[in-house]
Specification:
- The termini are far apart.
- By secondary structure, the chain is an alpha/beta fold.
- The radius of gyration is 18 Å and the shape is globular.
- It contains nine helices and seven strands, in the order βαααβαβαβαβββααα.
- The protein has a single domain, classed as Aconitase, domain 4 (Alpha-Beta Barrel).
- α4 crosses α5.
Amino acid sequence: MKQKFNIITSTCIPLPLENVDTDQIIPARFLKATTRDEKFFGDNLFRDWRYNPDGSLNKDFVLNNPTYSGQILVAGKNFGSGSSREHAAWAIAGYGFRVVVSSFFADIHKNNELNNFVLPVVVSEAFLKELFDSIYADPKTEVEVNLPEQTITNKATGKSEKFEINAYKKHCLMNGLDDIDFLVENKDKIEAYEKARN
């Protein structure tokens, strides 16, 4: 969903698992879907972890635990590895996450998140551990993600880190633009450039 991104302050859902791959994020059987409906993919985020084989809820999985909620997913190292399926980013966005925090993302998945208006924030392993500790100590712990300043702050401890983001993607997120919108926004400049070359 296209949403302008500025500053988000939210509680977090912790997923302290390393090497979470895109098949775990959205299983391959859902790639045959003929819909882009956000709810469909959001409902099937982490499908095989959220539900038991008989279709009942797995009460032990964090997304089914009412203790935790929020627009920020805090994940372990190497999030989004495996296949390059964009459906994984669709599922994360469709569930309602605006930010995913990890100490490392697979490159293709990181770009897919950005293209789907989800901000992947890379932090140090020490900051990530402290974040998990704060969330487990108090599930109401809030994190502030400030895109203009490129900072993430653990409000329980007051500690902040800077994060990197491509300047073009930052502009698109802050203005709610996808790649096509950006081109349309700059149509006059493109046409002027073309005229100047002829």
